Structures are given as structure tokens and as C-alpha cells.
Amino acid sequence: MLIYGFSLGDATLDLNIHDTYYVISKVQIWYGIAHLFAIYGILYWIFINFNRKMINSLTSIHLFSTIIGLIILTILSPLFNQESANFQKENDYEALVFFSQLIIVLIMLLAQFLFFVNMGIGIFRKQG
Fold it and tell me: How many domains does the chain have?
């Protein structure tokens, strides 16, 4: 992840909220993602060291949906930014891109919720 973040160079993400533009370097976004995975790794490590059992299927769903969602968002993101000749109206293309990204982000947020549910189950479950 960090190698990909370093390869972006000076690429930025521009967010326009009302009268304010927020310009965030994509390298900083990847630093945040790397830190998030480090926190998840530490939490999983703590549960393993204290012999707390988590539900394996929830752990797999959390990890795979987070990783695959990030891969889809990063690899397909440049494709979403290009204009497509197949769409007759620009609004149709923008709506498709928006809803595609929204669905991916909602799936990833659901996966993060499952992580906290899994942690709660692991805390109150008998030691294995």
C-alpha cells in the first residue's frame, strides 16, 4: 500500500464543500489506510494473545471486503474519471460513477461495522 502511495507523486484529491476547497495529497490518504490496517492488525493480535475467539467468517468478510473494496476503488478510480462514449448524457455517466462508488463505500463501512461486532462477540465469548 505504501509503495503504491509513493508512486502517486504529486496527485491530490480535491474536495469542494460549499465555499471551501480541501486539497489532500493521495500519499496522505494511503498513510491513513496503512495506519488503519496497522490498528486492525494490532487488535487482532491482542485477541489472539489473550486467547479470545472471534468468529472466523466475520473476520474473513471484514478483511476481504476491506481489501477488495480498496483495490476496486484505487484501480478503477482512474477509469471512473474518464468520459465514456457509451453514455448519451454526461449526467447518466456521473450518476453511474457516483452510485458505483457509493455502493463500494457502503459495503466497506458495513465490513467495518462487522469488525466491531466481531470484537464484541470475542470479548464476551468464553476463552477458547
Answer: 2
Residue-range definition of the domain harbouring residue 16 = 1-50
Which residue, 49, 48, 40, is CA-closest to 111? 40
Q: Residue 77 in 3-state DSSP?
A: helix
- Mark whether 107 and 57 lie in a shared domain: yes
Work out the burial of residue 23: count CB atoms within 10 Å of its CB; fewer than 13 is exposed, 13-18 middle, 19 or more buried: exposed
Q: How far apart are CA 12 and CA 96, in angstroms?
A: 23
β partners of residue 102: none
pLDDT in tens, 68-82: 888 887 776 666 555
- Give the total residue count for the chain: 128
In the block, cell 489506510 appears at 33
- Condensed to tens digits (0 to 9), the pLDDT of residues 65-117 reads 998 888 887 776 666 555 544 555 556 666 777 788 888 889 999 999 999 99
The helix (run of H) or strand (run of E) holding residue 14 is: strand 12-17
